[in-house]
Amino acid sequence: MAASAQIERIREKIESFKKEVDEYYESLEPVNNQAHIRENLGLYVQLVGALSSFRRLPGVTEHMGFEGEYVCATPEGRAELRKHLEESYGLTSEDLVYDVLRLLFHTDMEYADFLSFRTEAPNFDIEAISEEERAGFEASREFVDGFIESVGEGGFIAWDVGERIGVLRAARACELISSEFYWLALHQESRLATQSFESWSDFIVSALWGSVYYLFSTTGRKEGPELEEFLDLNLSLARRLVFEDQIWLPSTWIRTKFKQLALDPDSMFNYLENWKGPDICLASDKILVDGYGVGFMLHQEPQHEDDSGWRFFMGGEDTVLTEENEDEFAFVPLNWICNYDPEIVPFLGHNDEVAFVRDNRGVWRYLSDVDEEGNWLGYAKNVAEYATPLSESDFVAEQEEDDDYAYGDASAIDDELEASIKELSESAEEVVDDVSDEAADDVEDGAELSQVEQDAKPRRSVEVEEPKG
After folding, report:
1. Given strand 354-358, what is the order of strands in its sheet?
2. Which of 137, 202, 331, 441 could bridge 197 with an S-S bond, Cβ 3.0-4.6 Å?
3. How many domains does the chain have?
């Protein structure tokens, strides 16, 4: 179907702006800012919701900014903003956040449905929905068909993500949600964006087309001048973010390298259901892509709000992240690594700087308790000793001095142990013989053993480990 004259004007505006942005980006000096992004991830993930941050909200007297969390300055402001969230979105508690966000901002799911019909592999049976629902779907699909090739595979994800982040920021500003919940949800949204687009340029195109479709779908599914007006508003904000405030620049885009993971995240078990802390960690591709288990792990000072501080390696990789090797690592949910190697779970409670390594038998040890060949040095050090560990030669020398004093000669110990075992064995045989003779006499006399006597008979002792709840 041919696009309307209005859609053609909208297309021209968006494509012209993208060309302008791309040319501007190409004129900039290349900057590898990924290290700074990792250290200030809280700042950068909030930039994904920058478009929605310009909207005026009740109780918010200034722009929220992008540095850390914004919270309304007064109780009155927080109460006013809470009232707005309840009246506008029906959002009244933290428990409702995900349901509300999915219900309100799902234009990209509709876009996926349009694509499925376009490729003759529909996501649902159109005959199974009501006439009213079908009429709405057909009107939306016909509208999107006019520009679907201009949108690309990213669909309207950028618009949905930006709107959801806007609601999350408002909910945190009035303290409707906790700080921990906010950063977790925010990171999930920004990750979706960075995995779907390669640059701000692609993200902007998705956001602008998404804004057009969102207004169309929420105002009667009819074209009108308000569509272009809404686009022009979002274009002006995007222009400001790129050219004036210089926030949406190549140096602020969080690069995500798509990796063919050895495990499917959708089929992973949740080992950290009750985990309360930050849930992001750094892992080597040797684990994520090649599927090796964890051979070395360390906990460092976290770099940002949702960083757990944990770093995981197969063993042998460079543990220092640099510009040259950063593509060989990725920040991923901590639970992912638990699925690759569940044996790490008991160690995750450490919040100090600590390092563990598997010895040459596969047993986890403190790094300072294993030599360069992977041999366990045979004793555990406490945290204080871990900072300044003894060398292997010092340890061996000390053990040689202590062995004779504490334990005596090894051959003498073996002789004593053998004699003790023989003596115990002979005593046990005498007891068994005595009891057997007495029992035989009782049987011959026709006497029945009492329950007490039965309990006194020798029995085999078996040590059973109680189930762990």
Report:
1. 329-333, 280-284, 307-313, 296-299, 354-358, 364-366
2. 202
3. 3
Residue 253, pLDDT score = 85
Question: What's the rounded Cα separation, in Å, for the pair 161 and 154?
Answer: 12
Distance in angstroms (rounded) separating the CA atoms of residues 311 and 354: 11
Please tell me the distance from the alpha carbon of residue 379 to that of residue 300, in angstroms, as a whole number.
24
Distances 210 to 162, 450, 455 between C-alpha atoms, Å: 10, 88, 81
Regarding whether 330 and 277 lie in a shared domain, the answer is: yes
In a domain, 68, yes or no: yes
Does 271 share its domain with 223? no
In which domain, by residue range, is 354 found? 265-358
Tokens standing for residue 75: 């109780």
DSSP, res 376: B
Q: Is the pTM of this model over 0.70?
A: no
Residue 332 inside a domain? The answer is yes
CB distance 333 to 310 below 8 Å: no
Nearest to 21 by CA among 240, 227, 213: 240
pLDDT along the chain (469 residues), means of 10: 84 96 92 64 82 90 85 94 94 92 84 86 89 90 88 87 94 93 85 85 94 92 92 96 92 72 86 89 91 92 87 87 77 92 92 90 86 68 36 39 38 48 49 44 39 32 28
Q: Are residues 224 and 303 in the same domain?
A: no
Residues composing the chain: 469
